[in-house]
């Protein structure tokens, strides 16, 4: 049986893993290659590196991180953040990433999804979506709107329609981040996850809000997510991947045991 | 030396990186002379069967692969490499290399997410030196929308369940091919690559 995936997200800035802290900006929490190695050994199913480096002239540092990860870690990993062109995609894949996640660039230029899928294959293209609850209205019939620029800019686009269009354009997977749930540690937003997951035939990764293992159980069992993204619950040592998977297995969720 | 066949389709270097990590010499090449003089050959793969077969035929790599296999050299097909060795693929109605009789079919169950993406287990039907020592509970990383379906039961080495039970590891003689990616399947995947690098192409243990 196919296992539900537990995916760890590392935000990377200037070559360091970083974490946003309210009113304090970002603090560095470690070396991404060493952290990736630790999570790999704990049995994580997949990793995501999200580049939040502000200045574009320092982006080569991320390519070095990707190379370092690819030389030592033999599970799939994706890279997102700041990927705007086919050349950006090529550089990241060539350095050893399995997939690329595109968000803002895909909204601004949807053909990037189709071109990326044609050249690199659909399995490489993850459509990242940041969505926010708005209530139903004419431009947003599903009640969820697409935002870009890391959740700063509303696009007046319906999340459900965009997910279906992304699939039709050739995305192989959707990473669905709820802006409302993100950072709360109070659980994934189940309603939007369930709505999108049941409307598309490609896998959906739930993102935003994970704080306890029960949250993963709920997003798998109640919202039918194919994968769940976590970050702070493992970065601060509160849980290991093993703790989370043991809990999920006890609760009847199919997960890959690390043996 | 292990040759990893370069047919210009996607990321071929991940298999190379896994062999590097294991300290096993390998090279990515499209040169017939290099491929034919290798001790072992890997055909990795991502992408669509139609485009891959077109590239293989137009560059003459189809004949090179046939020669490698006829010559008894251990051959490992990965993902698309487990599909193009069968007779034909439903993907773009593509005739394939017909090294093993069988077809490549599309997952037809509409309730399933396509691609079949993520970690799944294998049930071994026939012991094989390349799978020696693999824990029966080990899982492997899959990502595909089409699956191999062998015509002869003897060619099925392992099966995997996703809606139906499909042939996830197939082979005969000096040919073994797997639908999953051993180079992305953690330490169990690396163990398979290490076994392959020691395999002589026969039924005996490594």
Features of the shown structure:
heterodimer, A: TIM Barrel, 36% helix, 27% strand, B: 206 residues, alpha/beta, 8-stranded mixed sheet, 5 helices, 14 strands, globular
Description:
The complex is a heterodimer of chains A (259) and B (206). Chain A has one domain (5-126, 161-250): Aldolase class I (TIM Barrel), CATH 3.20.20.70. Helices cover 36% and strands 27% of the residues of chain A. Chain A is built from 10 helices and 12 strands. Chain A has an 8-stranded parallel beta barrel, surrounded by 6 helices. The longest helix of chain A has 13 residues, at 60-72. The radius of gyration of chain A is 17 Å and the shape is globular. In chain B, 23% of the residues lie in helices and 31% in strands. Chain B has 5 helices and 14 strands. Chain B has helices spanning 13-22, 32-36, 49-58, 61-70, 186-198, and strands at residues 2-5, 26-29, 40-43, 75-78, 88-89, 94-95, 102-106, 116-121, 123-124, 139-144, 146-150, 156-162, 164-172, 175-178. In chain B, the strands form 3 sheets. In chain B, strands 2-1-3-4-14-13-12-9 form an 8-stranded mixed sheet. A 4-stranded mixed sheet of chain B has the order 6-5-7-11, with helices on one face. Chain B has a two-stranded antiparallel ribbon with strand order 8-10. Chain B is globular. The A-B interface holds A 1-5, 40, 43, 45, 70-72, 74-76, 93-94, 96, 98, 120-124, 172-173, 201-203, 226-227, 256-257, 259 and B 10-11, 13-14, 17-18, 20-21, 46-48, 110, 112-121, 135, 137-139, 141-144, 161-162, 183-187, 189-190.
């Amino acid at each position: 049986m196919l296992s539900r995936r537990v995916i760890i997200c590392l935000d990377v800035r200037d070559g360091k893993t970083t974490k946003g802290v309210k009113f304090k900006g970002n603090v560095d929490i470690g070396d991404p290659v060493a952290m990736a190695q630790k999570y790999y050994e704990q049995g994580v199913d997949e990793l995501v590196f999200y580049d939040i480096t502000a200045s574009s002239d320092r982006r080569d540092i991320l390519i070095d991180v990707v190379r370092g990860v690819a030389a030592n870690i033999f599970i799939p990993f994706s890279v997102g953040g700041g990927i705007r062109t086919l050349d950006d995609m090529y550089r990241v894949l060539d350095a050893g990433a399995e997939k690329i996640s595109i968000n803002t660039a895909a909204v601004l230029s949807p053909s990037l999804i189709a071109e990326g899928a044609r050249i690199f294959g659909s399995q490489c293209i993850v459509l990242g979506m940041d969505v926010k609850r708005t209530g139903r209205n004419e431009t947003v019939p599903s009640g969820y709107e697409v935002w870009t620029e890391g959740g700063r800019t509303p696009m007046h686009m319906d999340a459900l329609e965009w997910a279906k269009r992304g699939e039709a354009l050739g995305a192989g997977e959707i990473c669905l981040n709820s802006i409302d749930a993100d950072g709360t540690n109070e659980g994934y937003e189940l309603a939007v996850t369930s709505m999108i997951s049941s409307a598309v035939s490609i896998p959906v990764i739930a993102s935003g809000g994970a704080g306890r293992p029960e949250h993963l159980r709920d997003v798998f069992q109640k919202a039918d997510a194919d994968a769940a993204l976590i970050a702070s619950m493992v970065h601060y040592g509160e849980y290991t991947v093993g703790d989370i998977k043991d809990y999920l297995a006890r609760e009847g969720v199919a997960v890959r045991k690390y043996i | 030396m292990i040759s990893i066949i370069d047919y210009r389709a996607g990321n071929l270097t991940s298999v190379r990186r896994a062999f590097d990590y294991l300290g096993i010499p390998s090279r990515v090449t499209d040169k017939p002379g290099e491929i034919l003089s290798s001790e072992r050959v890997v055909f990795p793969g991502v992408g669509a069967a139609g485009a891959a077969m077109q590239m293989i035929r137009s560059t003459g790599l189809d004949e090179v692969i046939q020669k490698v296999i006829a010559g008894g050299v251990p051959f490992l097909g990965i993902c698309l490499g487990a599909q193009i060795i069968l007779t034909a693929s439903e993907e773009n109605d593509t005739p394939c290399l017909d090294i093993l009789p069988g077809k490549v079919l599309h997952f037809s169950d509409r309730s399933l997410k396509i691609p079949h993406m993520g970690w799944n287990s294998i049930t071994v039907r026939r012991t094989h030196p390349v799978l020696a020592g693999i824990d029966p509970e080990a899982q492997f990383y899959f990502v595909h929308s089409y699956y191999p379906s062998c015509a002869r039961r003897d060619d099925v080495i392992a099966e995997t369940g996703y809606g139906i039970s499909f042939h996830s590891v197939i082979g005969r003689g000096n040919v073994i091919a797997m639908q999953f990616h051993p180079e992305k399947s953690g330490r169990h995947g690396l163990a398979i690559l290490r076994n392959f690098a020691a395999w002589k192409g026969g039924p005996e243990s490594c």
